[in-house]
Batch of 2 targets.
Target 1
Amino acid sequence: MTNTSDIAMILEKAFASDPGKDTPRPSSRPRGRYVSLCENKLGDTGAIDLVAHLNLKKNQDVVYLYIGSCNIGVEGAEALAEMLKDNETLLILEIHYNFIGDEGAIAFAEMLKVNTTLKTLNLYGNKIGGKGAKALAKALEVNKTLTHFYIGCNNIGDIGAEDLAKSLKVNRTLNLLDIHSNKIGDKGMEKIAEGIKGNLHIFTIKISGNRISENIQDQIIIIQNN
């Protein structure tokens, strides 16, 4: 476990300069500071300290926060989500391959209902199931800012897919939805197909690695192409 002094050192180093060349960056880079803490094993304590660090510095220039594979659980997710409720700077949050689960996803859903700045949220591989997916779907019905949403490599299943499909009928902001490898079958993906049919804003939907037939895959491709 990373101790408090180590966490303080990690945070100071991360905020001292931009991350190295290996840090993933979007093709169109927004102006501002990019902070990478990936694979630093911060845990919940580190995530809470990170929030305090951001608040102390008033987060005036951080537009990209990369905290993948940091052993963050529910408490850390809740602290980060609470901070983001009134954050007006951060555009991209990558918190993939942690352990936030459904409860952490619910916290981020509550954040998305009121946040007016975040453009990209990556929740890959966070042990999110149907309960978390439902909360996030409800949030997408009211959020008017998020354009890229990654929830691949979780366990939302058909029920979670159906909830997301309902939000796609309402949401007019998302350009990309990544739901790959989520144990979704034909039933759930059929609902997704219905959801994007009348949505002219979804340009990319990633569905590989699910339990779907070629027929359903073809339906999604045709709808996207049209």
Note: Residues 19-24 have pLDDT under 50 and may be disordered.
Target 2
Amino acid sequence: MVIGIDIGSTTTKVAAVDSGKEIIKVKTRAVDAITSATGAFGKLLVENHLNLSNIERINITGAGASRIPGNLFGISTSRIDEMTAIGTGGRYLAKKDRIIISNIGTGTAIIQVDGSSITHLGGTGVGGGTITGLARQMLNTSDFDTIMNYASKGNAHNIDLQIGDIAESNIGFLNREYTASNFGKMPDTASREDIAAGILNLTYQVIGMVSVFAAKSKNNDTVVVTGNGSNNPIGQRILVSISKMYNIYFEFPADAEYATAIGAAKS
């Protein structure tokens, strides 16, 4: 059995890969990389009744991987390039060999997979960290569940300037209901629910458009969304609306938030 550990800035995920068996997955939160990685690894062993003797090797990746020297628990431990892990995991989950991957974490990385080739195309600093950071200042909370609860009850159209607010008809292929300026209509009386919806709209529209440009530049019509932000229901709806505009299809595979850990294990 091979263990892949993705040590992120806020969350650590572990995937255990054994040929012929279902992938086992767990995740934890901790302040520092060592506590997070060892805690997640221990949780995997205890919850699934595994022994250290079952583990062939450990592959670690992510922002905190460089902070862990040597081997973990005496088991051979390798460091895997994070972009390689994202590409490998995304390709495995999508079951496709030619895709663009948009990996949404604290920020967002854009990866091209073309057969065995994995290329980091770039990305954006907009991601989950943007949501919590803006909410901390604008809503006085950084609790993600609270932000999502607000956003589910809000309407971004009360915050964002739409094309219909400044034009009598569609502009080119853009419908009058599409966004002309995020937060461009922000009233002094805006509700916290509408502000939260506006923050989600801003974040996922930026991610969606960066992903669209990447896909079109590589003559690809599929973007596979992975990372912590992949299973956000409001974000998914925003990306699907962008998909309809540009004929670029966003896919949200099962276990997408574990893609990097799975990719590390399979590298």
Note: The two ends are 13 Å apart (CA to CA).
